[in-house]
Protein backbone atom coordinates (compact mmCIF):
# COMPACT_ATOMS: atom_id res chain seq x y z
CA UNK A 1 0.00 0.00 0.00
CA UNK A 2 2.83 2.33 0.84
CA UNK A 3 4.33 1.44 -2.51
CA UNK A 4 1.10 2.34 -4.28
CA UNK A 5 0.97 5.69 -2.53
CA UNK A 6 4.55 6.46 -3.50
CA UNK A 7 3.81 5.53 -7.10
CA UNK A 8 0.76 7.75 -7.24
CA UNK A 9 2.74 10.73 -5.99
CA UNK A 10 4.90 10.94 -9.09
CA UNK A 11 2.87 12.14 -12.09
CA UNK A 12 4.81 9.91 -14.50
CA UNK A 13 4.52 6.63 -12.65
CA UNK A 14 0.95 7.53 -11.72
CA UNK A 15 0.02 7.86 -15.41
CA UNK A 16 1.86 4.63 -16.13
CA UNK A 17 0.06 2.74 -13.41
CA UNK A 18 -3.38 4.02 -14.41
CA UNK A 19 -2.79 3.06 -18.04
CA UNK A 20 -1.49 -0.38 -17.10
CA UNK A 21 -4.60 -1.02 -15.01
CA UNK A 22 -6.90 0.39 -17.71
CA UNK A 23 -5.27 -1.78 -20.38
CA UNK A 24 -5.63 -4.87 -18.23
CA UNK A 25 -9.33 -4.09 -17.75
CA UNK A 26 -9.78 -3.54 -21.49
CA UNK A 27 -8.15 -6.90 -22.19
CA UNK A 28 -10.27 -8.70 -19.60
CA UNK A 29 -13.56 -7.14 -20.68
CA UNK A 30 -12.76 -7.15 -24.39
CA UNK A 31 -16.00 -8.94 -25.19
CA UNK A 32 -18.17 -6.44 -23.35
CA UNK A 33 -16.27 -3.39 -24.57
CA UNK A 34 -15.92 -3.99 -28.27
CA UNK A 35 -18.76 -2.63 -30.39
CA UNK A 36 -18.48 -5.34 -33.05
CA UNK A 37 -17.31 -8.91 -33.38
CA UNK A 38 -13.60 -8.52 -34.23
CA UNK A 39 -13.80 -11.34 -36.79
CA UNK A 40 -17.08 -10.34 -38.43
CA UNK A 41 -16.49 -9.70 -42.10
CA UNK A 42 -18.69 -7.01 -43.63
CA UNK A 43 -18.21 -6.76 -47.35
CA UNK A 44 -20.44 -3.69 -47.61
CA UNK A 45 -18.16 -1.59 -45.44
CA UNK A 46 -14.65 -2.26 -46.66
CA UNK A 47 -11.84 0.17 -45.81
CA UNK A 48 -14.15 2.82 -44.43
CA UNK A 49 -12.54 5.84 -42.84
CA UNK A 50 -13.31 6.50 -39.16
CA UNK A 51 -16.95 7.51 -38.73
CA UNK A 52 -19.79 7.49 -36.22
CA UNK A 53 -20.58 3.81 -36.72
CA UNK A 54 -16.96 2.66 -36.95
CA UNK A 55 -15.00 4.98 -34.67
CA UNK A 56 -11.59 3.90 -35.97
CA UNK A 57 -12.71 2.76 -39.42
CA UNK A 58 -12.78 -0.70 -40.98
CA UNK A 59 -10.13 -2.88 -42.58
CA UNK A 60 -9.90 -4.57 -45.97
CA UNK A 61 -12.45 -7.19 -44.92
CA UNK A 62 -14.81 -4.67 -43.39
CA UNK A 63 -13.91 -5.66 -39.83
CA UNK A 64 -14.17 -3.00 -37.16
CA UNK A 65 -10.71 -1.65 -36.30
CA UNK A 66 -11.64 -0.56 -32.77
CA UNK A 67 -12.98 -4.01 -31.85
CA UNK A 68 -9.88 -5.66 -33.26
CA UNK A 69 -7.67 -3.26 -31.29
CA UNK A 70 -9.51 -4.14 -28.10
CA UNK A 71 -9.08 -7.87 -28.70
CA UNK A 72 -5.48 -7.24 -29.75
CA UNK A 73 -4.82 -5.91 -26.24
CA UNK A 74 -5.43 -9.43 -24.96
CA UNK A 75 -2.76 -10.88 -27.21
CA UNK A 76 -0.21 -8.18 -26.53
CA UNK A 77 -0.58 -8.24 -22.77
CA UNK A 78 -0.67 -12.02 -22.62
CA UNK A 79 2.45 -12.39 -24.74
CA UNK A 80 4.22 -9.57 -22.91
CA UNK A 81 3.51 -10.84 -19.42
CA UNK A 82 4.03 -14.57 -20.02
CA UNK A 83 7.23 -14.02 -22.02
CA UNK A 84 8.61 -11.80 -19.28
CA UNK A 85 7.57 -14.37 -16.69
CA UNK A 86 9.61 -17.01 -18.48
CA UNK A 87 12.59 -14.70 -18.97
CA UNK A 88 12.52 -13.54 -15.35
CA UNK A 89 12.33 -17.09 -14.01
CA UNK A 90 15.29 -18.27 -16.11
CA UNK A 91 17.31 -15.12 -15.45
CA UNK A 92 16.69 -15.21 -11.72
CA UNK A 93 17.63 -18.85 -11.27
CA UNK A 94 20.77 -18.65 -13.43
CA UNK A 95 21.82 -15.29 -11.99
CA UNK A 96 21.28 -16.51 -8.43
CA UNK A 97 23.32 -19.65 -8.99
CA UNK A 98 26.12 -17.74 -10.71
CA UNK A 99 26.31 -15.06 -8.05
CA UNK A 100 26.04 -17.38 -5.09
CA UNK A 101 28.44 -20.13 -6.11
CA UNK A 102 30.92 -18.06 -8.10
CA UNK A 103 33.94 -19.82 -9.57
CA UNK A 104 33.56 -22.07 -12.58
CA UNK A 105 29.75 -22.13 -12.40
CA UNK A 106 29.68 -18.36 -12.49
CA UNK A 107 32.11 -18.24 -15.38
CA UNK A 108 30.17 -20.73 -17.47
CA UNK A 109 26.83 -19.00 -16.90
CA UNK A 110 28.20 -15.54 -17.54
CA UNK A 111 29.92 -16.74 -20.71
CA UNK A 112 26.59 -18.09 -21.84
CA UNK A 113 25.07 -14.68 -21.17
CA UNK A 114 27.82 -12.99 -23.20
CA UNK A 115 27.31 -15.38 -26.07
CA UNK A 116 23.53 -14.97 -26.05
CA UNK A 117 23.96 -11.21 -26.04
CA UNK A 118 25.92 -11.43 -29.28
CA UNK A 119 22.83 -12.55 -31.16
CA UNK A 120 20.48 -9.84 -32.26
CA UNK A 121 17.36 -11.12 -30.51
CA UNK A 122 15.18 -10.90 -33.56
CA UNK A 123 17.56 -13.02 -35.62
CA UNK A 124 17.63 -15.70 -32.96
CA UNK A 125 13.86 -15.66 -32.61
CA UNK A 126 13.36 -15.83 -36.36
CA UNK A 127 15.73 -18.76 -36.64
CA UNK A 128 13.71 -20.72 -34.09
CA UNK A 129 10.32 -19.64 -35.34
CA UNK A 130 11.20 -20.77 -38.84
CA UNK A 131 10.88 -24.35 -37.65
CA UNK A 132 7.92 -23.94 -35.33
CA UNK A 133 4.32 -23.16 -36.02
CA UNK A 134 4.02 -19.46 -35.37
CA UNK A 135 1.44 -19.87 -32.60
CA UNK A 136 1.05 -17.44 -29.75
CA UNK A 137 2.42 -19.99 -27.25
CA UNK A 138 5.55 -20.56 -29.27
CA UNK A 139 6.06 -16.82 -29.60
CA UNK A 140 5.87 -16.36 -25.85
CA UNK A 141 8.27 -19.21 -25.18
CA UNK A 142 10.77 -18.04 -27.76
CA UNK A 143 10.71 -14.41 -26.61
CA UNK A 144 11.13 -15.59 -23.02
CA UNK A 145 14.00 -17.88 -23.88
CA UNK A 146 15.90 -15.13 -25.68
CA UNK A 147 15.51 -12.26 -23.24
CA UNK A 148 16.60 -13.51 -19.81
CA UNK A 149 20.19 -12.28 -19.99
CA UNK A 150 19.63 -8.83 -18.51
CA UNK A 151 17.85 -10.26 -15.48
CA UNK A 152 20.57 -12.87 -15.00
CA UNK A 153 23.27 -10.20 -14.88
CA UNK A 154 21.24 -8.09 -12.50
CA UNK A 155 20.46 -10.92 -10.10
CA UNK A 156 24.04 -12.14 -10.18
CA UNK A 157 25.32 -8.71 -9.15
CA UNK A 158 22.83 -8.55 -6.28
CA UNK A 159 23.72 -12.04 -5.09
CA UNK A 160 27.42 -11.29 -5.27
CA UNK A 161 27.03 -8.43 -2.86
CA UNK A 162 24.55 -10.20 -0.61
CA UNK A 163 26.14 -13.62 -0.29
CA UNK A 164 28.71 -12.57 2.29
CA UNK A 165 26.23 -10.74 4.50
CA UNK A 166 25.66 -11.84 8.08
CA UNK A 167 22.11 -13.07 7.53
CA UNK A 168 23.36 -15.50 4.92
CA UNK A 169 26.03 -16.74 7.28
CA UNK A 170 23.42 -17.09 10.01
CA UNK A 171 21.22 -19.16 7.73
CA UNK A 172 24.19 -21.35 6.84
CA UNK A 173 25.04 -21.83 10.49
CA UNK A 174 21.59 -23.08 11.38
CA UNK A 175 21.97 -25.56 8.54
CA UNK A 176 19.61 -24.23 5.91
CA UNK A 177 19.96 -25.87 2.51
CA UNK A 178 21.58 -23.96 -0.34
CA UNK A 179 18.29 -23.86 -2.17
CA UNK A 180 16.62 -22.34 0.86
CA UNK A 181 19.35 -19.75 1.34
CA UNK A 182 19.27 -18.80 -2.34
CA UNK A 183 15.55 -18.38 -2.79
CA UNK A 184 14.27 -18.06 0.77
CA UNK A 185 16.83 -15.68 2.22
CA UNK A 186 18.79 -13.86 -0.45
CA UNK A 187 16.24 -13.53 -3.23
CA UNK A 188 13.70 -11.54 -1.17
CA UNK A 189 16.46 -9.01 -0.56
CA UNK A 190 17.28 -8.82 -4.25
CA UNK A 191 13.77 -8.77 -5.61
CA UNK A 192 13.35 -5.01 -6.12
CA UNK A 193 15.56 -4.65 -9.21
CA UNK A 194 14.03 -7.82 -10.64
CA UNK A 195 10.56 -6.34 -10.40
CA UNK A 196 11.75 -3.18 -12.10
CA UNK A 197 13.44 -5.11 -14.88
CA UNK A 198 10.39 -7.31 -15.37
CA UNK A 199 8.06 -4.33 -15.66
CA UNK A 200 10.33 -2.69 -18.22
CA UNK A 201 10.66 -6.06 -19.92
CA UNK A 202 6.93 -6.29 -20.59
CA UNK A 203 7.21 -3.23 -22.81
CA UNK A 204 10.03 -4.62 -24.86
CA UNK A 205 8.40 -8.06 -25.13
CA UNK A 206 5.28 -6.39 -26.51
CA UNK A 207 7.43 -4.52 -29.02
CA UNK A 208 9.12 -7.76 -30.06
CA UNK A 209 5.81 -9.58 -30.48
CA UNK A 210 4.39 -6.80 -32.58
CA UNK A 211 7.50 -6.73 -34.75
CA UNK A 212 7.29 -10.49 -35.30
CA UNK A 213 3.59 -10.36 -36.08
CA UNK A 214 4.24 -7.45 -38.40
CA UNK A 215 6.79 -9.55 -40.27
CA UNK A 216 4.21 -12.32 -40.59
CA UNK A 217 5.99 -14.78 -38.31
CA UNK A 218 4.20 -13.93 -35.09
CA UNK A 219 0.54 -14.12 -34.21
CA UNK A 220 -1.27 -15.26 -37.35
CA UNK A 221 -4.41 -13.74 -38.81
CA UNK A 222 -7.35 -13.85 -38.35
CA UNK A 223 -6.44 -13.56 -34.64
CA UNK A 224 -6.09 -9.82 -34.21
CA UNK A 225 -2.74 -8.63 -32.89
CA UNK A 226 -1.51 -5.06 -33.09
CA UNK A 227 1.46 -6.20 -35.09
CA UNK A 228 -0.43 -8.10 -37.76
CA UNK A 229 -2.96 -5.27 -37.98
CA UNK A 230 -0.07 -3.04 -38.96
CA UNK A 231 0.79 -5.46 -41.74
CA UNK A 232 -2.66 -4.78 -43.12
CA UNK A 233 -1.86 -1.10 -42.69
CA UNK A 234 1.24 -1.52 -44.80
CA UNK A 235 -0.68 -3.32 -47.52
CA UNK A 236 -3.19 -0.50 -47.74
CA UNK A 237 -0.74 2.27 -46.98
CA UNK A 238 -1.77 4.45 -49.91
CA UNK A 239 -5.51 4.42 -49.21
CA UNK A 240 -6.18 3.73 -45.53
CA UNK A 241 -4.01 5.66 -43.07
CA UNK A 242 -6.20 4.63 -40.11
CA UNK A 243 -5.07 1.03 -40.46
CA UNK A 244 -1.49 2.13 -39.86
CA UNK A 245 -2.00 4.86 -37.29
CA UNK A 246 -4.22 3.29 -34.60
CA UNK A 247 -2.58 -0.09 -33.93
CA UNK A 248 0.80 1.61 -33.66
CA UNK A 249 -0.64 4.13 -31.26
CA UNK A 250 -2.00 1.29 -29.14
CA UNK A 251 1.47 -0.31 -28.99
CA UNK A 252 3.08 3.03 -28.19
CA UNK A 253 0.67 3.75 -25.33
CA UNK A 254 1.00 0.27 -23.83
CA UNK A 255 4.78 0.17 -23.98
CA UNK A 256 4.99 3.70 -22.66
CA UNK A 257 2.69 2.81 -19.75
CA UNK A 258 4.85 -0.16 -18.71
CA UNK A 259 8.05 1.85 -19.10
CA UNK A 260 6.70 4.71 -16.97
CA UNK A 261 5.53 2.28 -14.32
CA UNK A 262 8.89 0.51 -14.39
CA UNK A 263 10.81 3.76 -14.00
CA UNK A 264 8.48 4.78 -11.18
CA UNK A 265 9.01 1.46 -9.42
CA UNK A 266 12.74 1.85 -9.81
CA UNK A 267 12.66 5.19 -8.07
CA UNK A 268 10.48 3.96 -5.25
CA UNK A 269 12.09 0.57 -4.71
CA UNK A 270 15.73 1.26 -5.40
CA UNK A 271 17.15 4.03 -3.25
CA UNK A 272 20.44 3.97 -5.14
CA UNK A 273 18.99 5.36 -8.35
CA UNK A 274 17.25 8.24 -6.62
CA UNK A 275 18.58 11.27 -8.38
CA UNK A 276 18.19 14.91 -7.60
CA UNK B 1 52.10 -2.04 -22.02
CA UNK B 2 49.05 -2.83 -19.94
CA UNK B 3 46.83 -1.91 -22.80
CA UNK B 4 48.36 -4.61 -24.94
CA UNK B 5 47.70 -7.27 -22.33
CA UNK B 6 44.20 -5.90 -22.00
CA UNK B 7 43.54 -6.21 -25.72
CA UNK B 8 45.24 -9.59 -25.88
CA UNK B 9 42.99 -10.80 -23.09
CA UNK B 10 39.92 -9.57 -24.94
CA UNK B 11 41.12 -11.24 -28.13
CA UNK B 12 41.62 -14.52 -26.33
CA UNK B 13 38.10 -14.33 -24.96
CA UNK B 14 36.86 -14.08 -28.53
CA UNK B 15 37.68 -17.73 -29.11
CA UNK B 16 35.39 -19.32 -26.50
CA UNK B 17 32.69 -16.78 -27.29
CA UNK B 18 32.87 -17.54 -30.98
CA UNK B 19 32.71 -21.21 -30.13
CA UNK B 20 29.68 -20.58 -27.97
CA UNK B 21 28.01 -18.70 -30.80
CA UNK B 22 28.46 -21.61 -33.17
CA UNK B 23 27.23 -24.13 -30.60
CA UNK B 24 24.12 -22.12 -29.86
CA UNK B 25 23.34 -21.47 -33.53
CA UNK B 26 23.75 -25.13 -34.28
CA UNK B 27 21.67 -26.28 -31.32
CA UNK B 28 18.89 -23.83 -32.07
CA UNK B 29 18.60 -25.16 -35.58
CA UNK B 30 18.59 -28.77 -34.53
CA UNK B 31 16.42 -28.58 -31.44
CA UNK B 32 13.65 -27.09 -33.48
CA UNK B 33 11.23 -29.77 -34.58
CA UNK B 34 10.52 -30.24 -38.26
CA UNK B 35 13.12 -31.07 -40.83
CA UNK B 36 14.65 -28.32 -42.88
CA UNK B 37 13.67 -30.13 -46.04
CA UNK B 38 10.12 -30.78 -44.89
CA UNK B 39 8.81 -27.93 -47.00
CA UNK B 40 10.43 -29.31 -50.12
CA UNK B 41 9.40 -32.84 -49.36
CA UNK B 42 5.90 -32.54 -47.93
CA UNK B 43 4.48 -30.50 -50.77
CA UNK B 44 5.80 -32.80 -53.40
CA UNK B 45 3.22 -35.49 -54.14
CA UNK B 46 5.78 -37.60 -55.97
CA UNK B 47 7.99 -37.82 -52.90
CA UNK B 48 8.68 -41.41 -51.88
CA UNK B 49 10.34 -42.46 -48.61
CA UNK B 50 13.42 -43.52 -50.55
CA UNK B 51 13.71 -40.13 -52.21
CA UNK B 52 13.28 -38.47 -48.87
CA UNK B 53 16.10 -40.58 -47.50
CA UNK B 54 18.29 -39.70 -50.46
CA UNK B 55 17.58 -36.02 -49.94
CA UNK B 56 18.51 -36.34 -46.27
CA UNK B 57 21.74 -37.99 -47.21
CA UNK B 58 22.48 -35.37 -49.84
CA UNK B 59 22.22 -32.67 -47.18
CA UNK B 60 24.14 -34.74 -44.66
CA UNK B 61 21.18 -34.89 -42.30
CA UNK B 62 21.53 -38.63 -41.71
CA UNK B 63 24.83 -38.29 -39.85
CA UNK B 64 24.97 -37.98 -36.04
CA UNK B 65 24.66 -34.45 -34.71
CA UNK B 66 28.28 -34.00 -33.64
CA UNK B 67 29.46 -35.08 -37.07
CA UNK B 68 27.13 -32.55 -38.66
CA UNK B 69 28.40 -29.89 -36.28
CA UNK B 70 32.05 -30.68 -36.89
CA UNK B 71 31.48 -30.58 -40.63
CA UNK B 72 29.65 -27.31 -40.42
CA UNK B 73 32.27 -25.77 -38.14
CA UNK B 74 35.07 -26.83 -40.44
CA UNK B 75 33.29 -25.16 -43.32
CA UNK B 76 32.59 -22.09 -41.24
CA UNK B 77 36.23 -21.16 -40.63
CA UNK B 78 36.86 -21.28 -44.36
CA UNK B 79 33.69 -19.27 -45.07
CA UNK B 80 32.12 -22.34 -46.57
CA UNK B 81 28.61 -22.20 -45.16
CA UNK B 82 27.09 -24.71 -47.52
CA UNK B 83 24.68 -24.05 -50.31
CA UNK B 84 21.28 -22.46 -50.23
CA UNK B 85 18.23 -24.72 -50.42
CA UNK B 86 16.62 -22.29 -52.83
CA UNK B 87 16.51 -23.27 -56.49
CA UNK B 88 19.58 -21.22 -57.35
CA UNK B 89 21.69 -23.45 -55.02
CA UNK B 90 24.26 -20.69 -54.58
CA UNK B 91 26.87 -20.82 -51.80
CA UNK B 92 25.49 -19.21 -48.66
CA UNK B 93 28.55 -17.05 -48.08
CA UNK B 94 28.19 -15.53 -51.58
CA UNK B 95 24.60 -14.64 -50.82
CA UNK B 96 25.52 -13.02 -47.52
CA UNK B 97 28.65 -11.34 -48.84
CA UNK B 98 26.86 -9.42 -51.55
CA UNK B 99 24.27 -8.15 -49.10
CA UNK B 100 26.52 -7.33 -46.17
CA UNK B 101 27.85 -3.96 -47.41
CA UNK B 102 24.37 -2.46 -47.74
CA UNK B 103 23.38 -3.51 -44.22
CA UNK B 104 26.68 -2.30 -42.78
CA UNK B 105 26.38 1.01 -44.63
CA UNK B 106 22.89 1.67 -43.26
CA UNK B 107 23.84 0.59 -39.74
CA UNK B 108 27.00 2.73 -39.72
CA UNK B 109 25.08 5.72 -41.01
CA UNK B 110 22.41 5.38 -38.38
CA UNK B 111 25.03 4.84 -35.68
CA UNK B 112 26.67 8.06 -36.84
CA UNK B 113 23.34 9.87 -36.79
CA UNK B 114 22.65 8.56 -33.30
CA UNK B 115 25.98 9.84 -31.97
CA UNK B 116 25.83 13.20 -33.72
CA UNK B 117 22.35 13.96 -32.41
CA UNK B 118 22.19 12.31 -29.02
CA UNK B 119 25.48 13.53 -27.53
CA UNK B 120 24.72 17.25 -27.84
CA UNK B 121 21.09 16.57 -26.91
CA UNK B 122 22.05 14.69 -23.75
CA UNK B 123 24.63 17.30 -22.76
CA UNK B 124 22.20 20.15 -23.29
CA UNK B 125 19.49 18.39 -21.28
CA UNK B 126 21.94 17.74 -18.43
CA UNK B 127 23.32 21.25 -18.38
CA UNK B 128 19.85 22.71 -18.39
CA UNK B 129 18.49 20.12 -16.00
CA UNK B 130 14.80 20.65 -15.14
CA UNK B 131 14.39 23.38 -17.74
CA UNK B 132 11.49 23.24 -20.24
CA UNK B 133 14.02 22.03 -22.82
CA UNK B 134 14.97 19.16 -20.55
CA UNK B 135 11.33 18.23 -19.99
CA UNK B 136 10.52 18.28 -23.70
CA UNK B 137 13.48 16.08 -24.57
CA UNK B 138 12.56 13.70 -21.75
CA UNK B 139 9.06 13.30 -23.17
CA UNK B 140 10.46 12.78 -26.67
CA UNK B 141 12.92 10.23 -25.36
CA UNK B 142 10.14 8.26 -23.70
CA UNK B 143 8.05 8.37 -26.86
CA UNK B 144 10.97 7.37 -29.07
CA UNK B 145 11.78 4.50 -26.78
CA UNK B 146 8.25 3.12 -26.69
CA UNK B 147 7.24 3.64 -30.31
CA UNK B 148 7.57 0.54 -32.47
CA UNK B 149 10.18 1.47 -35.06
CA UNK B 150 8.35 -0.20 -37.91
CA UNK B 151 5.30 1.86 -37.11
CA UNK B 152 7.33 5.06 -37.25
CA UNK B 153 8.64 3.81 -40.56
CA UNK B 154 5.09 3.31 -41.84
CA UNK B 155 4.06 6.79 -40.68
CA UNK B 156 7.14 8.32 -42.29
CA UNK B 157 6.35 6.47 -45.50
CA UNK B 158 2.79 7.77 -45.48
CA UNK B 159 3.82 11.34 -44.69
CA UNK B 160 7.02 11.89 -46.66
CA UNK B 161 6.58 9.29 -49.34
CA UNK B 162 2.90 9.32 -50.18
CA UNK B 163 1.31 12.56 -48.95
CA UNK B 164 4.20 14.97 -49.52
CA UNK B 165 6.01 12.88 -52.15
CA UNK B 166 9.38 14.18 -50.95
CA UNK B 167 11.22 10.92 -50.62
CA UNK B 168 11.17 7.51 -52.26
CA UNK B 169 9.95 4.72 -49.99
CA UNK B 170 11.44 1.61 -51.46
CA UNK B 171 14.68 0.25 -52.81
CA UNK B 172 18.19 1.60 -52.77
CA UNK B 173 18.09 3.56 -55.99
CA UNK B 174 15.62 4.58 -58.67
CA UNK B 175 14.64 1.88 -61.10
CA UNK B 176 14.08 4.26 -64.01
CA UNK B 177 17.04 5.96 -65.61
CA UNK B 178 19.51 4.95 -62.90
CA UNK B 179 22.09 3.62 -65.34
CA UNK B 180 22.17 6.86 -67.31
CA UNK B 181 22.88 9.01 -64.24
CA UNK B 182 26.26 10.58 -63.60
CA UNK B 183 28.18 9.45 -60.51
CA UNK B 184 27.09 12.54 -58.62
CA UNK B 185 23.47 11.95 -59.49
CA UNK B 186 23.79 8.33 -58.45
CA UNK B 187 25.13 9.29 -55.04
CA UNK B 188 22.31 11.78 -54.61
CA UNK B 189 19.82 9.15 -55.67
CA UNK B 190 21.18 6.70 -53.08
CA UNK B 191 21.16 9.39 -50.43
CA UNK B 192 17.51 10.21 -51.12
CA UNK B 193 16.61 6.55 -50.81
CA UNK B 194 18.57 6.14 -47.60
CA UNK B 195 17.14 9.12 -45.71
CA UNK B 196 14.04 7.37 -44.39
CA UNK B 197 15.54 3.96 -43.49
CA UNK B 198 18.54 5.50 -41.76
CA UNK B 199 16.56 8.10 -39.84
CA UNK B 200 13.82 5.76 -38.70
CA UNK B 201 16.19 2.99 -37.67
CA UNK B 202 18.10 5.51 -35.57
CA UNK B 203 15.10 6.61 -33.49
CA UNK B 204 15.26 3.90 -30.83
CA UNK B 205 19.00 4.23 -30.36
CA UNK B 206 18.72 7.98 -30.34
CA UNK B 207 16.24 7.92 -27.51
CA UNK B 208 18.28 5.44 -25.51
CA UNK B 209 21.62 7.07 -26.04
CA UNK B 210 20.56 10.64 -25.33
CA UNK B 211 19.10 9.38 -22.09
CA UNK B 212 22.34 7.67 -21.13
CA UNK B 213 24.27 10.73 -22.18
CA UNK B 214 22.14 12.93 -19.98
CA UNK B 215 22.39 10.78 -16.87
CA UNK B 216 26.08 10.18 -17.42
CA UNK B 217 26.64 13.92 -17.76
CA UNK B 218 24.55 14.66 -14.65
CA UNK B 219 26.60 12.13 -12.75
CA UNK B 220 29.88 13.71 -13.84
CA UNK B 221 28.69 17.23 -13.12
CA UNK B 222 28.20 16.24 -9.49
CA UNK B 223 31.80 15.12 -9.09
CA UNK B 224 34.32 16.94 -6.96
CA UNK B 225 36.68 17.70 -9.81
CA UNK B 226 33.94 19.67 -11.53
CA UNK B 227 33.45 21.64 -8.35
CA UNK B 228 37.21 22.21 -8.29
CA UNK B 229 37.22 23.32 -11.89
CA UNK B 230 34.43 25.77 -11.20
CA UNK B 231 36.04 26.92 -7.97
CA UNK B 232 39.22 27.85 -9.68
CA UNK B 233 37.14 30.09 -11.88
CA UNK B 234 37.21 28.29 -15.22
CA UNK B 235 34.62 29.53 -17.67
CA UNK B 236 31.50 27.34 -17.64
CA UNK B 237 32.00 26.27 -21.27
CA UNK B 238 35.41 24.93 -20.46
CA UNK B 239 34.15 23.08 -17.44
CA UNK B 240 31.38 21.45 -19.44
CA UNK B 241 33.13 20.64 -22.69
CA UNK B 242 36.64 20.02 -21.49
CA UNK B 243 36.32 18.52 -18.03
CA UNK B 244 32.85 17.01 -17.88
CA UNK B 245 32.12 15.87 -21.42
CA UNK B 246 35.27 13.80 -21.78
CA UNK B 247 34.43 11.80 -18.71
CA UNK B 248 30.76 11.54 -19.54
CA UNK B 249 31.57 10.13 -22.98
CA UNK B 250 33.32 7.09 -21.54
CA UNK B 251 30.30 4.92 -20.68
CA UNK B 252 28.89 5.86 -24.06
CA UNK B 253 31.47 3.72 -25.81
CA UNK B 254 30.24 0.63 -24.01
CA UNK B 255 26.62 1.49 -24.68
CA UNK B 256 27.37 1.93 -28.37
CA UNK B 257 28.97 -1.50 -28.43
CA UNK B 258 25.94 -2.98 -26.72
CA UNK B 259 23.55 -1.35 -29.17
CA UNK B 260 25.06 -3.12 -32.17
CA UNK B 261 22.83 -6.23 -31.97
CA UNK B 262 19.72 -4.08 -31.67
CA UNK B 263 20.66 -2.08 -34.73
CA UNK B 264 21.45 -5.12 -36.82
CA UNK B 265 18.28 -6.80 -35.58
CA UNK B 266 16.34 -3.78 -36.77
CA UNK B 267 17.68 -4.37 -40.26
CA UNK B 268 15.28 -7.28 -40.66
CA UNK B 269 12.35 -4.96 -40.24
CA UNK B 270 13.62 -1.97 -42.16
CA UNK B 271 15.04 -3.90 -45.04
CA UNK B 272 11.85 -5.83 -45.61
CA UNK B 273 9.79 -2.67 -45.17
CA UNK B 274 11.84 -0.44 -47.47
CA UNK B 275 12.71 -3.28 -49.88
CA UNK B 276 16.43 -2.92 -49.32
CA UNK B 277 18.47 -5.92 -50.47
CA UNK B 278 20.52 -6.42 -47.29
CA UNK B 279 21.23 -9.20 -44.82
CA UNK B 280 18.03 -8.53 -42.87
CA UNK B 281 15.89 -9.06 -45.94
CA UNK B 282 17.84 -12.22 -46.71
CA UNK B 283 17.15 -13.45 -43.20
CA UNK B 284 13.46 -12.77 -43.57
CA UNK B 285 13.15 -14.47 -46.93
CA UNK B 286 15.16 -17.47 -45.73
CA UNK B 287 12.82 -17.82 -42.74
CA UNK B 288 9.86 -17.70 -45.07
CA UNK B 289 11.40 -20.31 -47.36
CA UNK B 290 12.83 -22.42 -44.49
CA UNK B 291 16.17 -22.04 -46.24
CA UNK B 292 18.11 -23.67 -43.45
CA UNK B 293 21.76 -23.15 -44.50
CA UNK B 294 21.17 -19.48 -45.28
CA UNK B 295 19.38 -19.03 -41.96
CA UNK B 296 22.20 -20.59 -40.00
CA UNK B 297 24.88 -18.73 -41.92
CA UNK B 298 23.09 -15.44 -41.32
CA UNK B 299 22.73 -16.09 -37.63
CA UNK B 300 26.41 -16.83 -37.18
CA UNK B 301 27.70 -14.00 -39.35
CA UNK B 302 25.51 -11.47 -37.58
CA UNK B 303 26.59 -12.72 -34.15
CA UNK B 304 30.24 -12.54 -35.14
CA UNK B 305 29.71 -8.99 -36.37
CA UNK B 306 28.25 -8.12 -32.99
CA UNK B 307 31.18 -9.76 -31.29
CA UNK B 308 33.57 -7.64 -33.32
CA UNK B 309 31.51 -4.55 -32.54
CA UNK B 310 31.85 -5.30 -28.83
CA UNK B 311 35.57 -5.87 -29.21
CA UNK B 312 35.94 -2.50 -30.92
CA UNK B 313 33.98 -0.90 -28.08
CA UNK B 314 36.23 -2.57 -25.50
CA UNK B 315 39.38 -1.40 -27.25
CA UNK B 316 37.93 2.06 -27.71
CA UNK B 317 37.13 2.16 -24.02
CA UNK B 318 40.64 1.05 -23.11
CA UNK B 319 42.17 3.71 -25.32
CA UNK B 320 39.92 6.42 -23.96
CA UNK B 321 40.05 5.60 -20.27
CA UNK B 322 43.37 6.39 -18.64
CA UNK B 323 42.50 4.07 -15.74
CA UNK B 324 42.31 1.07 -18.04
CA UNK B 325 45.23 2.35 -20.11
CA UNK B 326 47.44 2.44 -17.07
CA UNK B 327 46.16 -0.91 -15.89
CA UNK B 328 44.37 0.30 -12.80
CA UNK B 329 41.32 -1.82 -13.41
CA UNK B 330 38.63 -1.78 -10.77
CA UNK B 331 36.62 -4.94 -11.13
CA UNK B 332 36.61 -7.48 -13.92
List keywords for this structure.
heterodimer; A: 276 residues; 72% helix; B: 332 residues; mainly alpha; 0% strand
Report on the structure:
The complex is a heterodimer of chains A (276) and B (332). Chain A is mainly alpha-helical and 276 residues long. Chain A has helices at 2-9, 11-28, 30-33, 65-101, 103-118, 121-129, 136-145, 149-162, 166-173, 178-214, 226-235, 241-269. In chain A, helix 2 packs across helix 12. The mean pLDDT of chain B is 82. The radius of gyration of chain B is 24 Å and the shape is globular. Chain B has 332 residues and is mainly α. The longest helix of chain B is centred in the middle third of the chain and has 39 residues, at 183-221. Chains A and B meet through helix 5, helix 6, helix 10, helix 11 and helix 12 of A and helix 1, helix 6, helix 7, helix 10 and helix 11 of B.
Summarize it:
The complex is a heterodimer of chains A (276) and B (332). Chain A has 276 residues and is mainly α.
Instruction: Using the CA coordinates, give the radius of gyration of chain B.
Output: 24 Å
Low-confidence stretches of chain B: none
Order of helices and strands of chain A: HHHHHHHHHHHH
Number of strands of chain B: 0
Which sheet architecture does the biggest sheet of chain A show? none
The description of the largest β-sheet of chain B is: none
Strand content of chain B: under 5%
Amino acid sequence: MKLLKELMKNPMSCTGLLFVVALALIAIFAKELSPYDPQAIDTYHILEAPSQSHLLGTDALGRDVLSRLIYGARISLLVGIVAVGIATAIGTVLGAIAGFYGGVVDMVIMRLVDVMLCFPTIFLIMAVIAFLEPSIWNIMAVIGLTSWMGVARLVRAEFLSLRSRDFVLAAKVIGASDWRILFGHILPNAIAPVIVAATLGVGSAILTESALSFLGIGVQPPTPSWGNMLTAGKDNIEIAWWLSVFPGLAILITVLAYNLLGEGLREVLDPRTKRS
Amino acid sequence: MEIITFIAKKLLWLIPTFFGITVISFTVMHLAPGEPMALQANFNPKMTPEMRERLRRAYGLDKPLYVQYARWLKGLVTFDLGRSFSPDRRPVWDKIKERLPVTLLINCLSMLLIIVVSVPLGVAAAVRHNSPFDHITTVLVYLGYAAPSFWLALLAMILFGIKLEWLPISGLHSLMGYSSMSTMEKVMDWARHLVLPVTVSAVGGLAGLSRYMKSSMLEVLRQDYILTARAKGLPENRVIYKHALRNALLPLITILGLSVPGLIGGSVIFESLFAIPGVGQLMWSSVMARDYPVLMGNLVIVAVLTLLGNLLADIGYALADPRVRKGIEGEQ
